[in-house]
Amino acid sequence: MSEQDTGQVREVLIRYYDGTERVARIVDQEVPYPDGKLIVSRTDPEGIITHANQAFVDMSGYSREELIGTNHYILRHPDMPAVAFKGLWDTVAEGKKWQGFVKNLRKDGTYYWVKATVIPNIRNGQLVGYTSVRRKPSRSKIRESEALYATLM
Amino acid sequence: MPLNLTVSPDFAPDHISGWFYFNTYLQRQLGIPIHLELYDSFEKQRQDIREGKVDLIYANPYDASMLVRELGFKALMKPAHKADETVIAVSVSSPCGSVEDLQPGSVIATTDDPDVHTMGMIMLESADLDDSNIQVKTLKNYVLVAKTLLKGEADAGFFLKQAYDELSELIRSEMKPLVSSQIGVIHHVLLAGPAFQSHEDALKSTLLSMADEEKGRNVLQNMGLVGWELMSEEDSEFMIDLIDTLID
Predict the structure, then answer these.
(1) Residue B116: what pLDDT?
(2) What gap in Å lies between CA B10 and CA B103, rounded to an integer?
């Protein structure tokens, strides 16, 4: 568990890049990343989820039906600075691989940390979507990311 | 000139005869001469692949990426119900109870099997271990990885899960797994090169019905497989994308 966990519950208005927003219930409580698993999802070029593996379903707290067709930003935790996602999108837009540490929001308001890698899916020279694979981060990387992101908010 | 079949060198020694039976079975069913070439080195096999000496290959997922994206091979089939998973194990006397207990400076016994090594290294990341702070001992096979652990010459070892499960009960009783991957979508692939592509349809139909008749089932059993499933182009692209995310 993160040393920052308080278990407190708060409501936060999250504004997304496309102008939509929602009030999310945030619970300061970490859910540990399961050993040995990879969370795998794919989106279309607009970020709409087209594939979710079982580990993604289990960790996100959403059903597969809820995830498919939804924008990937549903996982965005308000403690994640917008600049981190700008870096992600700028990198993959250039056709390159992006890697970083991300605090993800679960449906129940709790969170989990991942080391995420995102690559563009190119078929016959055309961008058809993105694949994102998340794996277990070390505690030291989580602590570093918590400190860094707090300065970027 | 016969077409050339080869198999990723990570197959279990117990299944060597199975691959020879498979080659005989394919030749009879397809009515074409096929030569089976087995390798004990990934590097030598890759060199021959690049020199165009391979027409049909049962490849590990890591090499499948190179075969499809660089050499124009086409993924045709995958083994049914058989994903490639990795186990990190230690000697039963090790004080480590989880990957996070492994310390910088640890000696890791591994093979040159690229998928298992990559997944093993990924599972070490949660302990802040990487190439810069561990010592890697690369061994010829998983039995030697186990022996190195049991002799106390390594702190942890990487195993293909199937190979770990097929070690003798005595050896396994002297080890404990710290973590086993549960990925489910990374698996070996049967790929055809350009020279084999006129036989693709016959090959697919032969392999799809292989488990339905006794001779085919016997061959499969000797290869440690239960059957084959079709693999679409998108299935193989998806797996290759996924592997790309795992390679730094």
Answers:
(1) 94
(2) 29
Count the Cβ atoms, other than its own, within 10 Å of residue B84. Answer: 23
**pLDDT tens sequence across B82-122:** 999 999 999 999 999 999 999 999 999 999 889 999 999 99
The domain locations on chain B are 3-82+185-246, 86-180
Task: Work out the pLDDT band at B177, boundaries 50, 70, 90.
Answer: very high
Yes or no: is domain B3-82+185-246 CATH 3.40.190.10? yes
pLDDT in tens, B194-210: 999 899 999 999 999 99
pLDDT for position B45: 94
A53 touches chain B (CB under 8 A): yes
Instruction: Name the stretches of chain A with pLDDT < 70.
Output: 1-3
Which candidate in B245, B246, B248 is best for mutational testing of the A interface (most A CBs within 10 A)? B245
Indicate the residue of B99, B184, B245 with minimum beta-carbon distance to A133: B245
- pLDDT tens digit string along B30-89? 999 999 999 988 889 999 999 999 999 999 999 998 899 899 999 999 999 999 999 999
Within an 8 Å CB–CB cutoff, is residue B181 touching chain A?
yes
Judged by CB atoms closer than 8 Å, whether chains meet at B123 and A36 is answered as: yes
Burial B176-192 (b: 16+ CB within 10 A, else e): eebbbbebeebbbbbbb
pLDDT value of residue A3: 67
The CATH code belonging to domain B86-180 is: 3.40.190.10
C-alpha distances in Å from residue A5, one per residue of A30, A126, A134, B170? 7, 43, 22, 45
The verdict on residue A13 lying in a domain is no
Tokens 């005869």 identify what position? Answer: B17
According to the model, what pLDDT value does residue B151 have? 96
Q: How far apart are CA B196 and CA B53, in angstroms?
A: 12
B-facing residues of A in 3-32 (CB < 8 A) are none
The single residue listed with the structure tokens 């005989």 is: B24
Query: Closest-CA residue in chain B for A136?
Result: B126
Question: What residues of A are in contact with residue B245 (Cβ under 8 Å)?
Answer: 97, 117-119, 131-133
